[in-house]
Design a protein that fits this description.
The complex is a heterodimer of chains A (about 110) and B (about 950).
Chain A: H1 2-20, H2 25-45, H3 67-98
Chain B: H1 2-22, H2 27-50, E1 55-62, E2 67-73, H3 75-98, H4 106-124, H5 128-146, H6 153-184, H7 189-194, H8 205-219, H9 228-231, H10 237-246, H11 248-258, H12 260-263, H13 267-289, H14 294-315, H15 318-349, H16 365-379, H17 385-399, H18 411-435, H19 452-470, H20 472-475, H21 477-488, H22 505-522, H23 524-533, H24 540-562, H25 567-586, H26 602-620, H27 625-645, H28 649-670, H29 683-708, H30 716-727, H31 732-740, H32 742-763, H33 787-810, H34 818-841, H35 849-869, E3 879-884, E4 888-893, H36 894-926
Antiparallel strand pairs in B: 1-2, 3-4
Helix pairs in contact in B: 1-2, 1-4, 2-3, 2-4, 3-4, 3-10, 3-15, 3-19, 3-21, 4-5, 5-6, 6-8, 8-11, 8-13, 10-15, 11-14, 13-14, 13-18, 14-15, 14-18, 15-16, 15-17, 15-19, 15-21, 16-18, 16-19, 17-18, 17-19, 17-22, 18-22, 25-29, 26-27, 27-28, 28-34, 28-36, 30-31, 31-32, 32-35, 32-36, 33-34, ...
The chains are: A mainly alpha (about 110), B mainly alpha (about 950).
Chain lengths: ~110, ~950
């Protein structure tokens, strides 16, 4: 299972990095979102993988997972949404002000 | 009491604009009243200090880093406090007449009072970190005062130069103080004094001393940092009289005295401090003679006198310290009066150029007489205060002969005499050139005596010069003894303050200085000609400015080399750098640990395949934007399943909800953006990016595997164990969020709020062209608000609200909580917007969305402050059990209110972002 999760994090990162390097705002936004997922899963995984449990005490569960990365990632997910929204609106504002959705102006392709 | 004393000028500065504008009180009156109050406060405390007692007031501030609010009144602080407040009153009075009505605004006196408060805080500090705060504050306020004439470029440059040097010195001093604090283990002066030789015997002592001397030397304009002081003369003259004679430039000297018991006594101290002082003394005295600007002459003579005091501190002998302190007092008194006199001359003649001002004695005999007495004191003429301390100084340079360690002892008396020669010569120039020596040339104004009250401060200071010079034992001895006792931290040796000590060596040195000075001044035409022909004209200001210009230029060129205004290029370089650094870090590290492996199951494998395929498809199909968004949504949903699978129900809930709002958001944006991304990148570029992406992916995968297979080593057992007893909840994730790490969460919802505000600002006034047809050329659906959706959404809203209330309330014990409940509410409300349009929804949701965010953050902060009111640290939570009918017994924690703040902030942010973006359509439609 560890190998599977590692590979998934890697695939998400690779796709995200490729998207980050595109010429238009839209794929860059997608790339950042995707990178956010990858980072969140990575952080979450730093608490190691634990099946069939939950970070709840006094619920008769044995082998509780590490709650700290979960708490960190929970806020990271919400903040990630805030950041994506910010970028989307920034892209729209750029579209309104500059009339285009390219990341860079007039650079070589 | 001491806290009150330090607060007086600050409070005065705070009230002054109000009193001046509303009650029409003269600002100078308010300012001098504040200083007067302060002086009275000091004097009421003074009696025990004269007897050698030390008053200390202390309150804890940040005990964890050793910072306390602690004040100390000993002899040295008493001396400085009296100088700061006493001369402060005179300067304020003088400024009232000196400044034109336009300049004499409240602003000037506010700055002056702030500076006064900063100086008082500095000299009264017992805690060293607190002292540093005040030290920086003196630099900042003096910057404001020097640059007071904002439209004058010289004033701005002078202020900047002063700030640069004193600020840089402050940084060095900071290093020295932190090192001392580390060695001693406390930042309290008392503890530092009690530490004996431990600092001096420490390996880091040379580092501390050098940093310390940079701090003290920059502030007190010691060579080679002296050059900012003459440029600071662009300040209004009252500022020069105050800052550059009595107070700020003495702050470095004060430090030398303050840390004398701790740092002095070593050979290094002797050579470094006395060397610096000697160079400054000679250089200042030499350059003072060649200034044509009255204030320039005084500035360089100040530098020279500061060098003299530093030299005395450097000698390290008890009598030398007494002489140093004595000279601090004397110099403050005569130099302040000289600056004021120079200001009067400037004020009444319109110029300060000594090549034009001559023969003023006829026009202003009274001012002339006072200025001459003060200048004579500066030259060290008998019966005036400057003579006594200079005599002691000469005596101490001679006494060096008996110190075996001082190999260069023979140099000191000669150098001292030489400096004395120059001091006499420039004092003579001040007297003779200005008040005699022919008739004034082309003065802008006809000179006459100043207004009566403008001269009073000068009178008082000159009377002090004479009083100290003739009756030293009565006037100054008690203060001198108290201050010297504080510096030396041991019983004082016997010393004599008599006016006449007989025909001894110091007296002959004085005589030689007098004679030499007169001769030098008589031959000044020849001397000036030689000076003008000197090839070396080093200007510290030009050197510093050149250095700064070079640094800017260098940064500019570096910037241009790296920056071609292409974000893609930055991203590529950044990612490449991270990759290379990461690879270097991982090189040779074990790539798999010995931790337990989790068995693979078929469900996980299927999910993994979908997730990987979705991620790859997002990248590969990114040009068909709709498909890419759907694929991204797939990735998000599977990620939430992944969280659920690996025992993180809260994360799974959050992720699935965020995924919904993200997809809505991106779809909204796509309405305006082109549907497809044009094919622009070359194949080579795509291959290059692909290689980088693959390398990054592989690197992260390897890193993840290495991490995942390490045996767990976590601090989380604390949270698991304490969640119920300390936090009152069984959902450990939620307890961490609202309790253990509540401060983090508070920061996070604040960030959310900031993002929401930023989005609102960017949306304001934004009008985008709306395409009339979709990308396949079809017209938009005419059924804008489908009936089915309207009906269902109306039904759904109460259910959504109920669910979110349920999730919210149980969040402390079961999966749920403010973040998740907020997202559920947000999604429910957004559905209303989608179904019925913002036009129809707005009246039914009339609240200000930014207000909701703000209310959320405020509730969270208030919850935190509430624990203050009960005497606990910020954000301490408490809980109790409440029984309600129907619901039964449940637990009510103060953390619930905090979570309510989180809830509101999340709801507000989601609504603001999505409804704001949706509102854009409406605006565009109506255009």
């Amino acid at each position: 299972m560890e190998a599977l999760v590692s590979i998934l994090i890697g695939v998400m990162t690779a796709s995200a990095v490729y998207l980050l390097l595109r010429t238009h705002t839209f794929p860059v936004i997608l790339g950042l979102s995707l990178l956010g997922y990858a980072v969140n899963v990575f952080l979450f995984a730093s608490g190691r993988l634990q099946l069939d449990s939950a970070p709840l005490v006094e619920h008769g569960l044995k082998q509780l997972p590490d709650p700290l990365p979960q708490a960190l990632v929970l806020t990271a997910i919400v903040i990630g949404f805030g950041m994506t929204a910010f970028l989307v609106v920034l892209a729209l504002r750029a579209l309104g002000a500059l009339g285009g959705d390219r990341v860079d102006e007039g650079e070589e392709s | 009491m001491l806290l009150l004393l330090v607060c007086v000028p600050f409070v005065g500065a705070l009230l002054l604009p109000f009193l001046a504008s509303r009650l029409r009180l003269p600002p100078a009156g308010v300012a001098s009243l504040s200083a007067f109050l302060g002086l009275i406060l000091v004097l009421t405390q003074a009696t025990p200090v004269y007897d050698g007692e030390v008053l200390i007031n202390r309150w804890d501030w940040m005990p964890a880093i050793g910072l306390s609010l602690a004040f100390r009144l000993d002899g040295l602080s008493l001396l400085f406090a009296q100088l700061i407040l006493g001369i402060g009153i005179l300067v304020v009075l003088y400024a009232h007449y000196y400044l034109s009505a336009e300049q004499a605004q409240s602003r000037f006196y506010v700055f002056l009072l702030l500076f006064m408060g900063a100086m008082l805080g500095l000299v009264l500090s017992e805690n060293l970190l607190q002292m540093l705060l005040f030290w920086e504050l003196t630099s900042l306020t003096s910057f404001l005062l020097i640059g007071f004439k904002r439209r004058d470029p010289a004033a701005r440059q002078g202020a900047r130069l002063a700030l640069l040097l004193t600020g840089g010195g402050g940084l060095a001093l900071f290093g020295a103080v932190v090192l001392m604090g580390q060695i001693v283990g406390s930042y309290e002066l008392t503890a530092v004094f009690d530490s004996g030789q431990s600092i001096e015997n420490h390996d880091l002592y040379p580092v501390i001393l050098v940093l310390f001397l940079i701090g003290a030397g920059t502030k007190s304009a010691q060579f080679p940092f002296h050059f900012w002081l003459p440029h600071a003369m662009a300040a209004p003259t009252p500022v020069s009289a105050y800052l550059h004679s009595a107070t700020m430039v003495k702050a470095g000297i004060f430090l030398l005295g303050r840390f004398f018991p701790v740092l002095a006594g070593s050979e290094l101290w002797f050579y470094a401090v006395s060397g610096m002082g000697l160079a400054t003394l000679l250089l200042g005295a030499y350059l003072a003679l060649f200034q044509h600007d009255l204030k320039g002459l005084l500035a360089y003579s100040t530098i020279s006198h500061l060098g003299l005091i530093t030299l005395l501190f450097g000698l390290g002998t008890p009598l030398g310290e007494i002489a140093a302190i004595f000279h601090i007092i004397n110099h403050a008194v005569f130099k302040a009066s000289l600056f004021m006199a120079a200001g009067i001359i400037d004020h009444e003649t319109g110029t300060r150029d000594m090549r034009r001002i001559h023969g003023l004695f006829k026009h202003m005999p009274y001012t002339g007489a006072l200025a001459m007495v003060a200048a004579a004191a500066m030259a060290g003429v008998p019966l005036l205060n400057g003579f006594l301390s200079k005599e002691m100084f000469f005596g101490e340079t001679l006494a060096l002969r008996w110190l075996s360690e001082a190999e260069w002892h023979w140099l000191f008396p000669w150098a001292a005499t030489l400096a004395g020669v120059f001091a006499v010569a420039y004092s003579l120039r001040f007297i003779h050139d200005v008040f005699f020596n022919g008739e004034p040339r082309e003065l802008p104004k006809t000179p006459h005596e100043p207004p009566r009250w403008m001269i009073v401060p000068v009178e008082i200071l000159v009377v002090l010069c004479v009083a100290v010079g003739t009756l030293p034992s009565i006037t100054v001895r008690p203060l001198l003894e108290a201050a010297a006792g504080a510096v030396l931290q041991m019983p004082l040796p016997d010393f004599s303050l008599a006016i006449w000590h007989g025909f001894n060596q110091p007296f002959f040195m004085s005589l030689a200085a007098m004679g030499g000075g007169v001769a030098l001044y008589a031959g000044r035409h020849w001397v000036f000609a030689v000076h003008d022909r000197l090839p070396v004209k080093l200007s510290g200001k030009r050197l510093t400015e050149g250095l700064i210009a070079y640094l800017f230029d260098f940064a500019h060129r570096l910037d241009h080399a790296l920056d071609n205004r292409s974000l893609r290029r930055y991203s590529f370089l950044l990612l490449l750098t991270v990759l290379v650094l990461g690879a270097l870090g991982l090189w040779g590290a074990p790539l798999a640990g010995s931790g337990a492996r989790t068995p693979l199951d078929s469900g996980a494998l299927l999910g993994g395949l979908l997730l990987g395929a979705g991620a790859l498809a997002t990248a590969v199909k990114h040009r068909s934007r709709l498909i890419a968004v759907l694929m991204l949504g797939l990735v998000g949903l599977i990620t939430s399943l992944l969280f659920a699978h690996f025992s993180a129900p809260d994360l799974a809930l959050t992720q699935v909800l965020v995924e919904i709002v993200t997809v809505i958001l991106v779809l909204l944006a796509m309405y305006y953006l082109p549907e497809a991304t044009p094919h622009e990148s070359s194949l080579a570029r795509r291959v290059r990016d692909g290689v980088l992406a693959a390398a990054a992916g592989i690197g992260i995968a390897v890193l993840s595997y290495a991490m995942l297979t390490l045996p767990p080593d976590s601090i989380s057992s604390f949270y698991l164990a304490e969640s119920k007893p300390a936090g009152g909840g069984t959902n450990v994730v939620n307890v961490i969020l609202v309790d253990f790490r509540g401060f983090d969460t508070l920061g996070e919802i604040t960030v959310l709020g900031i993002a929401a505000v930023g989005i609102m600002a960017m949306l304001r006034g934004l009008v985008l062209a709306v395409p009339e047809r979709d990308w396949l050329g079809r017209p938009w659906s005419s059924d804008r608000h489908p009936l089915v959706l309207v009906t269902v959404s109306k039904l759904l809203l109460p259910i959504a609200l109920l669910v979110s209330a349920f999730l919210f309330l149980r969040g402390h014990n079961e999966p749920g909580g403010g973040f998740i409940a907020g997202l559920v509410t947000g999604v429910g409300l957004i559905l209303q917007y989608i179904a019925e349009g913002s036009e129809a929804t707005r009246p039914r949701l009339p609240w200000d969305k930014l207000g909701i965010v703000g209310a959320g953050v405020i509730i969270a902060v208030l919850t935190g402050i509430g624990s203050w009111a009960l005497g606990y640290p910020f954000l301490t939570s408490t809980y109790t059990y409440v029984t309600l009918p129907l619901i039964g017994k449940f637990e009510l924690a103060s953390a619930l209110f905090f979570d309510l703040g989180v809830y509101l902030a999340v709801v507000g942010t989601v609504l603001m972002i999505l409804a704001g973006l949706g509102g854009l359509t409406r605006r565009a439609d109506s255009v």
